[in-house]
Amino acid sequence: MVDPKLSYEKLEKLKNLLQSYKSVLVAFSGGVDSTFLLKVCHDVLGENCVAVFSNSALSPKREKQEAEKLAGAIGAKLIVLERDIFANEDFLKNDMFRCYYCKKDLIKRLKELKENLRLNQIVEGSNIDDLKDFRPGRKALEEGGIKSPLFEVGFTKDEIRFLSKEFGLPTFNKPSMACLVTRIPYGSQVTLQKLEMIEKAEEVLLEKGFKQVRVRHHDDIARIEVDFEELPRFFDLELMKDISNKIKSFGFKFVALDLCGYKMGSMNQQ
């Protein structure tokens, strides 16, 4: 349960913290947290707030389009940073620290951009609930001196969703996001083909009206995760057959449904 008074107290602390930065480059994905952060940054700092979206094969195309719309609605300037993740040999090892290697590379690019734009700080949208999952990228943020103001103030995900709704942000009920490589087990080769297969398969589920979706890539098998409450929809045999046929057309031989439903960080348990 969210305490509105406490949420607004944290909001005031956040505004004061952002004001002390004077100018910021906001790492912006278009998700719940970074959209809320960008909104508050822009309200406090105006033109001294610039958003940057990291675009690569790890991001579904729809996320870039949504990020552009959201930044435009907020009124913030958005820069799209193009990245080639296949040039990062450490990341391609696909071990448990792949997120750390990816973040290290991204932070280097963000620092260059910050200097070119003559901005004071780089900020990103981690909140305290992120500590509940394995997040090696957090170490890269700390080493790189990246500010996490929502984390510093103590915002929870529910508080961010509450205030986002109060602000009229369309992301207040947006499902949790994660880059496409999180659908590939550690140790398996990361290829553009796999990422495209995953993106297309998830698009099928989203088009069918499922909200929180993941398609985990296990070689020939596509393992579908949806919210537990949405699992009964698969009792519709025609829907199930249609989804299976479409996902198989992308290169999978088998399509499986995880009966436990979606769980954040499930691939960390492999």
TrEMBL record:
Q: Which UniProt keywords apply?
A: Transferase
List, alphabetically, the InterPro entries matched.
LarE, NAD/GMP_synthase, Ni-pincer_cofactor_biosynth, Rossmann-like_a/b/a_fold
The protein's superkingdom reads Bacteria
Q: What PANTHER family has UniProt attached to this entry?
A: EXSB FAMILY PROTEIN, NAD_GMP SYNTHASE DOMAIN-CONTAINING PROTEIN
List the source organism. Caldicellulosiruptor naganoensis
Q: Which GO terms describe its molecular function?
A: transferase activity
NAD/GMP synthase domain span:
20-79
Gene3D superfamilies linked to this entry: HUPs
Protein name as annotated: ATP-dependent sacrificial sulfur transferase LarE
